[in-house]
Structure formats: structure tokens, C-alpha cells
Amino acid sequence: MTEYRWLLPSVLLGDGQDGRTVRRSTRDWFVDIVIFALCAFGTLALLGELQASGTRVSDFEQLLAALACVAVWLRRRWPVGLCLVLTVITTYFILAGPPAAVALFTVAVHRAFNVSGPILLLNLLTVLPSAQLRPDPTLPFWVNVGITEAALLAIFAWGMVVRARRQLVWSLRAQADKAAEEARRLERERIAREMHDVLAHRISILSLHAGALEFRPDAPAEEISRAAGAIRGSAHQALQDLREVIGVLRAGDAEEPTPERPQPTLDDLPGLVAECRQAGMRVELEVEAGEVPERVGRDAYRIVQEALTNARKHAPEVPVSISVGGVAGQGLGIRVRNRLPARAGRGMGIPGSGSGLIGLTERASLLGGRLSYGPTPGGEFEVEAWLPWKT
């Protein structure tokens, strides 16, 4: 949010963090030049009015008023100190009134009320001795005091309004930045989940074929060639998926969103099962569902994919049965079962993060469904899910 630092009510020239100096922007230079010109014009106009009313203005007071106008350039670096000095000066030298008003406005804009409030009170209190020491011959004492204090209150209120507006703009922009950052974080998490599902599936198939070559080095040349081709194809597809996600992550801060590759749906389940059968798994698939919504179909595909990946890891030689069915309005049910291995340690030894099924549970919950997994009393491992399917 550094590009919005000028909006912060406490950030002034010299208020940079870690001792760094905040430099004036082009906008700051323009505003300061205009304010300096207004101070000079207001001081000259006040001088002419005082002289026209017969009030004597000394050369020292004119010099002091000129220096006060020049000191306005310091209002960004030392707003409180400048306002205090000019407040004391204007107690007697009223020609410095315009720069003092600018200093009060600056404090109201750039400092919290616990700082600007006492300074306003000091300004209001100094009006009484100023009106007594330098009375206006054209106005009664209390009228002069009332007009001056009303002017100070109006200037201070204007500064508070400007401060409130800047705080609101800064807050809205900060919230927008936070929302954009949160959206980028969620998108990266979604990509990470997708890549976990895809790469775990690809690498488990690759490991299955490699394990077959390791334990059957005397297999026929045709079978070895087919397994090597499957390894090559799985590795190539895994690398392609990895390049795609890296490209998306690198383009995450670009203005134009990177188009996503086509996502799998429920219609792609037969292809997934065929790929697993080619890798040597025994898989039975039963689908009794019509045209399901795209997101429901994608999540159902990912659930089946992760369940098959776990089956390859922990029970590669055990048959797996998959049943998917449902109707619109009642939801889509998914059940993946396989017998638990006869003895522990018969899996392929593929390392896993342990977060695959947890991630699928979160995916189902986000969609409004549910997912459970674990061994059954019948000696099977079951992954069961229900996803809402609205009409």
C-alpha cells in the first residue's frame, strides 16, 4: 500500500518509517505553491485593510508576516511546532494571521484529535488577549472575538472533514488491496489442490509401472516396452501439468488473467478408469447419473481420482469398485471401495503428505456436501461422499 501513503492522516514530510524521509509528490508541490500564494495574498490584503483603517503596522511586523508565509513550506515537516509558534506570534502580530490559519488547518488534517484538539483550544484562548492588545476600531470587542473564534472553528472543522474523507478513501483502498490479496491467496491454494490431485495421480501410475519393471525384469520385451511407454507418457503429462501451474503462478500478478486449461468432469471418469486399468489396476466403474453441473462433476472426478491414487499407494493389487449415482434435487453420491491388504506394508511405498483426503473433505464442504473415509467392519477401505445437485 505504499502508493497510498500520501492518504494516511499521520504521514507527512519527514514522517517516513525507519527514519526515511517522505518526499513531496507533484501533487504536494502544486498544493504547497497554491497555499503559499494564498497566504501571501491574504497577508497583503490584511495589510492593506489595517492601513486603510488607520492601524499602524511596523516594519518588524511586516517582516515577521513575510517569514510566516515562507514558513508555510515547513507545515508538512513540523505541523504542530509551526502551528504553536504562529499561534503565539498572532497573539499580538495579527498580520501573521493567514499563515497561522493554514497551520491550524494542516494540524486538523494530519493529526488526530487528541493532538489537534488542544491546539484548537490554545488558538481560541489566544483570541482574547489578541483582541485586547490589538482591538479592531470598527468592531466591538466581543463581536471581534466571536467572529475570530467562529473563523477558527470553521477552519478546524474543514480540516477535520478533509481528514475524515482521506481516512475513508485510504480505508477503502486498503480493503480493496486486502481483498485482492486474499483472492490471489485463495487462487493459489486452489491451484495447489488441483496440482496435488493431478500430480499424485500421475506419479502413482508412473511408480506402479516402474515397480512392475523392477519386480519383473524377465518380462517379455513387448510388455517392458508398453510399461516404458506408459512411464514416459505419465512423466510427460506430469511435466506438462507442472509447467501449466507454474505459468499460472508466474502470471498471477498480471493484469490479464491466464486462461485455465479444461477441467475434468464426470464424463471423464471412464478415461481415468481406463488409464488405471492400463497401469495394471483392477477397477470396476458404475455410473448412474445424468448431466450433472460442471463443478459437481469436477469435484466428483477429483474425489474418485484421489481415492484411486490412495488405493494404488496402499493396496495396488486389490480390486477397486467405484459407484457414482444420483438425481437432480437429491444430490450425487460417490463410493469407492477396496479390500484392505492382507498384511501391512504391501503398498508401493510412495510418500504422501496425508492431506489428499483432508483436502477433498474441505472441497466437498465448500460445495455444501460431505465426505467420509476409513476402514469398514467388513474389512474394506471406503471413501464415501455426497455432493449437492440442485435442480
TrEMBL record:
It is an enzyme of class 2 (transferase). It comes from the Bacteria. The chain crosses the membrane at residues 29-48, 84-105, 112-129, 141-162. Coiled coil: none annotated. Residues 187-252 form the Signal transduction histidine kinase subgroup 3 dimerisation and phosphoacceptor domain. GO terms for molecular function: ATP binding; phosphorelay sensor kinase activity; protein dimerization activity. Keywords: ATP-binding, Kinase, Membrane, Nucleotide-binding, Phosphoprotein, Transferase, Transmembrane, Transmembrane helix, Two-component regulatory system. The keyword Hydrolase does not apply. It holds the Pfam family HisKA_3. It catalyses: ATP + protein L-histidine = ADP + protein N-phospho-L-histidine. GO terms for cellular component: membrane. Its EC number is 2.7.13.3. PANTHER family: NITRATE/NITRITE SENSOR PROTEIN NARX-RELATED (PTHR24421), NITRATE_NITRITE SENSOR PROTEIN NARQ (PTHR24421:SF10). This is histidine kinase. It comes from Nonomuraea soli. The lineage of its organism: Bacteria, Bacillati, Actinomycetota, Actinomycetes, Streptosporangiales.
